[in-house]
């Protein structure tokens, strides 16, 4: 099953991009180097001109793939959620015990990401840092409702739905499966952010990880 990931294409809504960056070497270089540059200087300071300088290409060539840097961030976020969804499916599909399956699912969506060599042009470790620090900027906008209606966030919503189904398998009478699933997904990112930047206001440090925190939280919620 693990080998399946290497032959699957990560699917991102075609409304986010003008031209699919996966279809050309230039597009892949744009994605690869945008991750590195955003990680280095932050999304606020990131521009297509700086990216063009980094990859040795005209700024206009990047605009052939993405309308603006907001759309590029949405692309990176959607790619990450789709990649994480594959991890979730692959690592839980053979687990029959509902509680063990939920524990594994929580681990997958809250753990620190490791490098996945199936996608050579994307460094998942650095992309994960961007998701922790910047991904909320992809939907905390005035346009979020219209973009949601157009399907920009389908992958993000789908992984939460998958997680909520696993929660329901443990306790079918629990009334807040979707709320709990979205709390785990977003809360995991937030705790990793606090661990990095505000360690004095989180217990998730040293040996206590966000995974341990949410595993215990969910267990108590479902009992």
Structural notes for this entry:
The chain has helices at residues 4-7, 25-41, 48-55, 59-63, 69-92, 98-110, 124-134, 144-149, 154-170, 177-197, 210-222. The chain has one domain (4-222): Tetracycline Repressor, domain 2 (Orthogonal Bundle). The protein has 223 residues and is mainly alpha-helical. The chain has 11 helices and no strands.
What's the short story on this structure?
It contains eleven helices and no strands.
Architecture blueprint of SSEs:
Elements (H helix, E strand, L loop, with lengths): L3 H4 L17 H17 L6 H8 L3 H5 L5 H24 L5 H13 L13 H11 L9 H6 L4 H17 L6 H21 L12 H13 L1
Helix pairs in contact: 2-3, 2-7, 5-6, 5-7, 5-9, 6-9, 6-11, 9-10, 10-11
Report how far apart the termini are.
32 Å
User: Would you state the CATH class?
Assistant: Mainly Alpha
Based on CA inertia axes, which overall geometry fits? globular
Any idea of the CATH topology?
A: Tetracycline Repressor, domain 2
DSSP helix fraction: 55-70%
Structural class: mainly alpha
What is the H-and-E element order?
HHHHHHHHHHH
| Percent in strands | under 5%
Provide the domain count. 1
**CATH homologous superfamily label:** Tetracycline Repressor, domain 2
CATH-level-2 architecture: Orthogonal Bundle
Largest β-sheet summary: none
Radius of gyration: 18 Å
The tally of beta strands, per DSSP, is 0
